[in-house]
Amino acid sequence: MSPVGHWVDSRNDNYDVYMCEWNSSNHTCEHETVIADDPGVRHFYPAIWGDLVVWWHSYPYPIRNRDVYLYDISTGVTHGIATQQGVYEDYPTMWGNLIVWVRGYDVYLCEWTGASPCTPHRLTDEPATQYQPAIWENRIIWRDYRNTPSGKYWNDVYMCVWDTSTKSCQCDPGSDAGCDEATGHIRLATGAEERQTSPYYLAIWENRVAWYEWTRSGGDYIYLYDIPSRTATSAVSDPHDPYELGLSGDWLVWLDYNVSGRDVWAMDLATMEKVRITDEYSQDYPAMWEGRVVWSDDRNGTDDLYLYELLLPPPERVALLIEDVEQLVLDGTLSEGEGTALTSKLDAAAKSLEKGKNKTATNQLRAFINQVKALVRSGRLSAEEGQTLIDWAQGIIDDLSG
């Protein structure tokens, strides 16, 4: 399947969830489909992983209730994930089969197995507020007020490393600084307490955590936190009320308020160079995955969706291509042997690029394309699945020859 986009849409005077499939060949969004349009119910904050989309329902007054639902694209079936009556269950996010959301003021997680119910596991059980969770693989972070004195407004960021075997957060006080052995939570050394500030709009990718921070002196900052070294550094010190952060690979994306409106920016964290993606009209809600940035844009008088493809370095794009093949194996589309045959060619191309042997890498990528075409001819890959892989590989070849 092509990469799938999803969004909240009010075209029918209601907040519904739509999706479409991105065609990288002709740069269009195809097969637009509505997946949540319950009458009188508003649907917010969808998140996606593979064939799964989650969001939360908001019911009209006087019903004070919010529920989390999941839609399986492959089956067309909607499942209730968190539907406890009389409780706000909202702000879901996910990675793989792990779904994280907020119930009341605590963070919960469930492991999706393909059918309801999805057993909830309570990650936090503190009298103070915990919310705004974010996830990368089995690492979950959230804003936490457990250490905030009365009358103060700063907050911490905590992390849970989820263990699927014990169904609990796990940390080692001997090796994980900030570890609370009783809860399994790790308190990240953000420095917010010393600065008396609050990290907002959390994002996590591998060993990096990003957040926006406003100071009482009037400064705005985007911080990056390195988990192994427990150090926080200011990555962007001159934004105008930045928010809606996102991390993907070596890229950071955010929305920046300025005198002309709201613009989308990105930063290559390998070089710390900033890229201004938009410079007119007003944009909202940027998100990023595998070098693609999407956002809501009002340049045509309505809120439309736009996409921008960052030109990632060839080695990063080869790595993403390897991940795509591995996902096809995990999905059962390709056998392990077929996946290994494809990734071995990509691994060889990556090593050639490291040595500066671009011509050799080009030949290895062409061998990859030939094998993908063979898998399409044999019916092991659909024409659409094969073309997506071919387009990515050919784009790398074009850049290397240019």
Describe the structure.
- With about 400 residues, the protein is an alpha+beta fold.
- About 20% of the residues lie in helices and about 45% in strands.
- It is built from 5 helices and 28 strands.
- It has helices spanning about 190-195, 315-330, 335-355, 360-375, 385-400; strands spanning about 5-10, 15-25, 30-35, 40-50, 50-60, 65-70, 75-80, 90-95, 100-105, 105-110, 120, 130-135, 140-145, 155-165, 170, 180, 185, 200-205, 210-215, 220-225, 230-235, 245-250, 250-260, 260-270, 275, 285-290, 290-295, 305-310.
- The strands form 7 sheets. Strands 12, 13, 14, 15, 16 and 17 form a 6-stranded antiparallel beta sheet that branches. A 4-stranded antiparallel beta sheet has the order 4-5-6-7, with no helix packed on it.
- A hairpin with a 2-residue loop joins strand 18 (about 200-205) and strand 19.
- Helix 2 packs antiparallel against helix 5.
- It starts with a strand and ends with a helix.
